[in-house]
Write a structure and sequence with these properties.
The complex is a heterodimer of chains A (239) and B (219).
Chain A lengths: L6 H33 L13 H28 L4 H31 L7 H25 L5 H28 L13 H45 L1
Helix pairs in contact in A: 1-6, 2-3, 2-5, 2-6, 3-4, 3-6, 4-5
Chain B lengths: L1 H14 L10 H17 L3 H21 L7 H5 L2 H7 L4 H31 L3 H29 L5 H26 L3 H29 L2
Helix pairs in contact in B: 1-6, 2-3, 2-6, 3-6, 3-7, 3-8, 6-7, 6-9, 7-8, 7-9, 8-9
The chains are: A mainly alpha (239), B mainly alpha (219).
Chain lengths: 239, 219
């Protein structure tokens, strides 16, 4: 793990890995979009509206994978003081929040024809909304800490606390929801037809590759910022 | 052990209403003013207020819990108390745990007392009031633990006060859901689950808070 702690080695790998992830991600995502929007058959009950599934499911998956990235990086930062872990966590926060917001937005747009309403206080929706606010809090905290020169372990602690809290939020809203009303619609996709399943798998893969590319780009930008600052400081000392 | 009790006594002298750190009654007054605000906003319909009153009290309690955050950790860190405690070999975790206890004593029971006039203003019946009070008893330790944790995380940041609210609200959602949810089921499991979440948070707070203080001190 610490083999990649050396920023120079990390940058050497990231330099060729970023375009590979970006291009393959763009290709697979574009292919999935074409397939999902034009080629896949319309669903029996929901008709054409079901096509938003091909955007909704990958974004929601990445919304959750984003916080997992933050949590694992935070653990590596706190336990092993891995020098790149803080950058990985910060790099994953903004795209993770964006995908969470996209997941909420596409779910809401889908909910309008499927459920007849933009928003229900259903367990899943509510816990995802809370996840979005956790992301926003994390981004604000990490930003304030890096602006004011605080320790990068501060946002890492919040990342871990948030990770412990997410299952609690998830189960608490499920329990709470069952008090007020039964869920408007089940997410029972177990009998999903293979053409949807494969399309979804490809969509998740494509979006994940794009996510990885964005995280690497953001990590490289953060590293460049640190290096520029260090160089300025060195120059100031020499002068 | 005696050192920890001394710290707890000192914390209480600081934080209890009328304590040396001042402004200790402000969260309670804020709580009452928020509870007073809702009838103005939704109208004085007694039936509606009685039905939503328990939830309003919970929201007011959560908002009031954000208010004292900036004076929980920051003054002691600025004055070097944490450095002194570290020199004495008292771990940050122990100090934070004492702080959670002291903060709860200065915040939980007074809030439960302040909930009585709030319940009267909102026209809650006796059964709902009992559930709200039991829920607050089970939930305020958790709120106190989140408060101390967030205070330790945002200490030393210029934008800390505004950040603290943003960080605290999503973490407090489970307490609010179970605490206010107990009203719909007539107590029982909801209050028990509020207590369970509280225990998890209280167990977590010393480690998260202690690590945050060490990180801020640059240790």
């Amino acid at each position: 793990m610490h083999g990649y702690a050396n920023p120079a080695r990390f940058l050497r790998i990231a330099r060729w890995l970023t375009p590979v992830l970006l291009l393959s991600g763009l290709l697979i995502t574009a292919g999935t979009m074409v397939y999902g929007l034009f080629l896949a058959p319309a669903e029996r009950l929901q008709g054409e509206t079901v096509r938003i599934l091909f955007i909704h499911v990958p974004t929601v998956w990445l919304g959750m994978a984003g916080w997992s990235t933050i949590a694992i990086s935070s653990l590596m930062e706190l336990v092993w003081r891995h020098p790149l872990a803080a950058l990985a966590a910060r790099g994953a926060a903004v795209p993770g929040a964006l995908f969470t917001a996209l997941g909420l937005a596409t779910g809401s747009i889908w909910g309008r024809p499927a459920w007849g309403t933009w928003w229900v206080w259903d367990g899943r929706l509510t816990s995802f909304l809370v996840l979005l606010f956790l992301y926003l809090g994390y981004i604000a905290l990490a930003g304030a800490v890096s602006r004011e020169g605080g320790s990068s372990r501060i946002p890492a602690i919040f990342g871990l606390v948030g990770a412990i809290n997410i299952p609690i939020i998830h189960y608490s809203v499920l329990w709470w929801n069952s008090l007020h009303q039964p869920p408007s619609i089940g997410m029972g996709n177990s009998s999903m037809s293979p053409e949807f399943l494969w399309g979804l798998g490809a969509g998740v893969l494509g979006f994940s590759l794009l996510f990885g590319a964005v995280v690497l780009m953001r990590m490289r930008a953060l590293l460049a910022e640190i290096q520029a600052e260090a160089r300025l400081r060195r120059k100031a000392l020499e002068a | 052990m005696s050192a920890l009790l001394t710290i707890l006594r000192r914390d209480l002298a600081m934080l209890l209403p009328g304590g040396r750190r001042g402004g200790t009654l402000l969260p309670l007054l804020f709580f009452l003013s928020v509870a007073m605000l809702f009838p103005f906003a939704v109208g004085p319909d007694a039936a509606l207020l009685a039905r939503t009153g328990g939830g309003i009290i919970w929201v007011a309690a959560l908002l009031a819990a954000i208010l004292p955050l900036d004076r929980l950790i920051a003054p002691d860190l600025d004055q070097g108390f944490f450095d002194q405690w570290a020199l004495r070999g008292i771990s940050e975790e122990a100090v934070v745990f004492m702080r959670v206890i002291a903060h709860w004593i200065s915040f939980g029971p007074p809030l439960m007392i302040a909930a009585l006039p709030a319940a009267a203003l909102l026209g809650l019946d006796g059964a709902s009031l009992r559930i709200v009070e039991l829920g607050l008893l089970a939930g305020t330790p958790g709120l106190a633990a989140i408060g101390v944790m967030i205070a330790a995380l945002t200490v030393g940041l210029r934008s800390g006060a505004a950040l603290a609210g943003l960080l605290m609200i999503p973490l407090a959602v489970p307490l609010l859901i179970f605490g206010a949810g107990a009203l719909a089921t007539g107590g029982g499991s909801g209050i028990a689950l509020t207590g369970a979440i509280s225990l998890i948070l209280v167990a977590m707070a010393p480690f998260a808070g202690g690590a945050a203080i060490r990180a801020t001190r640059g240790g």
